[in-house]
Amino acid sequence: MTLRILFRPQEERLAEILNNLGMEYDEKILPSIGNEVLKSIVAQYDAGQLITMREKVSQDIREQLQKRAVEFGLILEDISITDLHFSREFAASIEEKQVA
Question: Could you give phi then psi for residue 5, rounded to 5 degrees?
Fold first, then answer.
């Protein structure tokens, strides 16, 4: 699963962010909270649900990421799942179950 995250720092916390985390704050924070949130949300769904309930999964990820990002002074403007990939065999199996 791949996410696209558009963000900006909270202006009033910019000095704090730069002093504590440095200029590469986004490279330090976003991958770690992104992986943390993705793992916790994805674990709540089976593979079929990840495909059929993509909008719900995306919403859950968005809500949790926004909560975590605020702790670090970041505002998330947009979050979207850009890639959800399973093996061909697995995807075919899920599709067969849905058709049945």
Answer: -125, 120
Fold assignment, 2-99: Tetrahydropterin Synthase; Chain A (3.30.479)
Q: What is the average per-residue pLDDT within 71-93?
A: 81
**Partners of 6 in the beta sheet?**
78
What is the per-residue burial (b if ≥16 Cβ within 10 Å, else e) of 52-77? eeeeebbebbbebbeebbeebbbebe
pLDDT at site 47: 76
Sorting pLDDT into bands at 50, 70 and 90, what band is 100?
A: low
Query: Domain map of the chain by residue range?
Result: 2-99
Residue 13 token pair: 């916390």
Segments in the chain forming alpha helices (H)? 14-21, 25-42, 47-52, 54-71, 88-99
In single-letter form, the type of residue at position 84 comes to: L
pLDDT tens digits, 24-49: 988 989 999 999 998 899 889 887 78
